[in-house]
Structures are given as C-alpha cells and as structure tokens.
Amino acid sequence: MPKITISVFRAEVGGFLGLSRTHPKLIEKAQKLLKEEKGRLLIDSFVTHCGDDLELIMTHSHGTDNKRIHRFAGDVFAACARIASEIKLYGAGRDSQTPGSADRGPCVAELEFEERESDPVLIFIADKTGPGAWNFILYKIFADPFNTAGLVSDPSLHQGFDFEVHDMAAKSRIIFRCPEESYRLLAHISDPSRSVIRRVFRKDGEITAVTSSRCFDINAGANDNGDDDPVMIVRAQDGFPLVGEALEPFCTPVLVGGGMRGFPYGPLMPVGLSDVSSTRSDGPARALCFGFQVTGGELIGPADMFDDPAFDRARARCNELADAIRVQGPFAPRRLPREVKGHAPRHTVKEGPAPGREKLPE
Ligand code: MG
Q: Computed from CA positions of residues 319, 320, 321, 326, in that sequence, does the dihedral angle turn out positive or negative?
C-alpha cells in the first residue's frame, strides 16, 4: 500500500476587516489553483480559513518536506497575496513569499502514513494564539487517562506515547517517553512560550500527531522558530485515541497567549466554521477542527467537529473568562511577559534614556 502524505499549510496573506476574517476572493483563488493540480501534483485538496488565516490542506504521494509541494503552496499564497494587495486587505502578503513582502514564511504540518482499513484524520486550526497552544491539548489526549480512558482500557494504548518537544530558545529537541516521563514532559511543555510539542509517536514509531511549530522558508529551508496561529494533524481510532477523546480537551477553557496588539492571555474557544471570524478585541482565540476520512488519499469530508451543542458550555465559559481578562486592560497578567518572543507589547516602557526618565540614587 503506497504511503499518503497530508500537508496543511497556513498563512496570513491579508486580513479582511483588520485581523478578523478572510476575504472570499482569497479562498476562491486558492481553491481554483489547488483543484488544477488534482490528479497531477496532488491527490486531493481542501481550502479553508480561520480568522484572518488561509489554510491549504493537501494529500499527495511525495512525502514530507517535499520542495515541489512547498513551493506550490508558496506560489498559491503569493497569488492570494497579490489579490489581497489589490483590494488593500490588512497586512497583505505578510506570510507569503512575494519578493520584499515577507519577514517569515507560511507554517506547515505534515504527516506521512500508510492508510489503515479506516483512517479518520482530524485537522485542528487555531487563530490569535502562539505555537505552543496545542501543548495542553496534546498532553490531555495522549498522556492523561482521565481524558483518554483508552490509555487504561485499550490494550493497544497501554504502552503510552512518546512526545517530541522543541525548545525554541535553545534550538534543541528532546523526546519524552510517556507515561514514564510524564512529569518531566510537563515541566517543559508547561511553558508553551518556549517549548512546543512537535510530534507524538506510538511506541512502534508510528506518528499519530504533528503540529506546525516548524515554519518553512522556501529560500532558506526549514527552521524551528515556530509561528503564530498553529495547525495540527491528529490520527484517531484503532490504535490511537478515539475521535471523541481527541476533542474532549477543548471542553476546558485553557488559557493561551497571543491576542491582539501582542498583549494578552485568553481562552482558546472551540468553534464551528461559521464562528471562526473574531470581531471582538482579543477574540477569544479560536480553534476549528475539520475531520476527514482519508480513503485512497481522497479527503472524504470535511466534518465540522466543533459544530456540536456539546461544546456550548465550553464556549460560554470561554466568553466569561475572556470578559474577566479583558477588563484588566494593559495590566499583567492579561499582558504577556515582555520576554515572550513576538508578543512583547509594543508600547511598554523602554530601557535606557527616555524623555522624563530620571535616575534614582543608589
Ligand atoms: Mg491569524
């Protein structure tokens, strides 16, 4: 059986009404370009959006880190960025590879696998948050038996899972074997501004989850700087946690960093596609989940997994929490620490000489 690769690319190529949503013209352009490659470079594709981000979901047989696939995604984003510039969308071309426009490239999460008899795949997409937003979620799915009862009751999960964690500050990675090293894992991933879960493996080496903590630069090659608004691919059922177990952590309004103006912490709210546009200040951050049945590389779906009243209570709790945090204004702890990369408030007091600054006696 030939292996299938799922590649999920994300970029902000231009926000429609500030950072709130994606313009339909960008989605249409991306859909057209991806469809043209069906049966050629790609087996199948799907285009979606979350807030101001555009996501390209592709299946193909070229493996991960394939230059042709990455260059194609970059070309699609660049074509969309040109439209964004024409209609003057906010930050047009920010993540695209158009000359002179980008200080960073799109994000990508990729997973190569041999299809099982039935292969449900979940694609999670977040907006208004940082690359470590999935840390809490992945720990709950793959290491917490109170979330995933299958870790206790299903013999195929008894051995647990291994977590590959990238330390973005030290530019290093470390593997934690769980459950044996679950406390050490928590010691690292509980600082998601620095440590990001990159992949989760079964003990036989089969990858079950991958995140987009790595972003790519078509010219410079892959790097591990991480990026905002991460995506994640999770395989479920039959030797992995169940679909429902992969969604259950979103019933807790976990706090994540990265709202508007580089300021705040806030809750990560699970939403269906109709609610991915965040018009309120600071969101709250959104998490969308599309499920696909992967069959011969075809993406059967999507199923809009959070379009379910069972998540209504979680959404209400997220909104209550967002209210409580929002009224803190510029004060910590709403404000992220200055040292959090990419999230330092832009108008905080600067060190050194400044108008009105007077040195105090020792
Ligand atoms: Mg965004």
A: positive
